[in-house]
Amino acid sequence: SRLQQVIEVAIARSELLIFTGGLGPTPDDLTTETIAHFFKTPLEEHPAILQDISEKFSQRRRQMTSNNRKQALLPQGAEILPNQRGTAPGMIWQPQDNLTILTFPGVPSELQQMWQDTAVPFLKSQGWGKQVIHSRLLRFWGIGESELATKVSPFFASTNPTVAPYASHGEVRLRLSACAASQEEAIALIEPLQAEIQEIAGSDYYGADEDSLASVVGQLLQQQGETLSVAESCTGGGLGAMLTRIPGSSTYFSGGVIAYANAVKMKVLGVSRETLSQLGAVSEPVAKQMALGVQKALQTDWSLSITGVAGPGGGTPQKPVGLVYMGLAAPDGTVDIFEYRFGSERDRDTIRTRSAYHALDRLRRKLLSRRFEKGN
């Protein structure tokens, strides 16, 4: 009933309604049925949709259940919006004059592809979208949301492009959005503003849109023809996973050692038994020896190491949960050590994930600094 109320309000002021989500096979997926009921239009089953769903289940070696037939039901007269990535198709429907309804699944990857492949061409063919809105997401690491917002506050008054801040898992983002007659013109509006913001943010800015710390580090290593290895304790392979998530990373990432037990730290990485005994695994000297050990073992130009107390147990007053040491070994044999105290209130996964991100950021900054010194 609430969705019907929303439809009633929307059609009084809109010519285009776009729905996302509620197209699945479960009882609470009610979008299609509710729309059809509101316009007093019967649903009809589409054999083409059933066939597509059945084939997708076969490809996954699973049996299609009876409730999936629900996804093949659309209001009479609706046009199918095919879903290449999932089982829930959308629809384009014009139930009355001057009203068009589009529905999409709520899964982001499915929605995005369907929007580009079908919705955009349809809307353009109907005369919508004469103005183009283009957005660019600027990404920052090593600076807080409030600090960045203070630095770029004069730009918040801009109306075209607009500037909107976001923060998530230690990363801060600014979305720049411009409206123009074409995408090229919108981009031309965004780029001068982006350049100003990058100048203000300095090395805290690391990339845009689909860039990640791992992909940017990879680009910098590739540009210099250099290689990287990692030695991980508390992150348990998380850092290596981030690096290998990037296609083609084998050209610069040689590999890593998950040295969770002290015996592995000693045997594989050459960490001193005496150091472990006297100072413990979570210490600056151990981080240094881990970095040098994996750099030597895998014969790489650079290496990163991480050792810390991820919790929830294992902390002491001297070494509380959230204490992490990172080592960064350079081609000249020098090692930088970084200490982070993420706080005992953070959960284990957050500490592990942020440790990996901060290690990548430290390497990124070092590579940028070195490139600047070389004049590249």
Descriptive notes:
This protein is 40% helix and 24% strand. The protein folds into three domains: 124 residues, Molybdenum Cofactor Biosythetic Enzyme, Chain A (3-Layer(aba) Sandwich); 77 residues, 2-Layer Sandwich (Alpha-Beta Plaits); 162 residues, Maf protein. Strand 11, helix 8 and strand 12 form a beta-alpha-beta unit. It has 376 residues and is of the alpha+beta class.
List the helices and strands and how they pair.
Blueprint: H1 2-11, E1 16-20, H2 31-38, E2 43-45, H3 47-59, E3 73-75, E4 79-81, E5 90-96, E6 99-104, H4 108-125, E7 132-141, H5 145-151, E8 162-168, E9 171-180, H6 183-201, E10 205-208, H7 213-224, E11 228-232, H8 238-244, E12 253-258, H9 262-269, H10 273-279, H11 284-298, E13 302-308, E14 323-329, E15 335-341, H12 348-374
Parallel strand pairs: 1-6, 11-12, 11-13
Antiparallel strand pairs: 2-3, 4-5, 5-6, 7-9, 7-10, 8-9, 13-14, 14-15
Characteristics of this structure?
376 residues, alpha+beta, Molybdenum Cofactor Biosythetic Enzyme, Chain A, Alpha-Beta Plaits, 3 domains, four-stranded mixed sheet, 12 helices, 40% helix, elongated
- What is the radius of gyration computed over CA atoms, rounded to a whole number of angstroms? 27 Å
Report strand order across the widest sheet: 12-11-13-14-15
Q: Overall mean pLDDT score?
A: 95
CATH topology of the largest domain: Maf protein
CATH class of the largest domain reads Alpha Beta
Overall tally of structural domains: 3
Number of strands: 15
Instruction: Tell me the series of helices and strands, N- to C-terminal.
Output: HEHEHEEEEHEHEEHEHEHEHHHEEEH
Low-confidence stretches: none
Structural category: alpha+beta
Specify the CATH homologous superfamily of the largest domain.
Answer: CinA-like
Question: So, CATH architecture of the largest domain?
Answer: Alpha-Beta Complex
How can the largest sheet be summarized?
5 strands, mixed
Please indicate the percent range of residues in DSSP E strands (runs of 2 or more).
15-25%
Shape descriptor reads: elongated
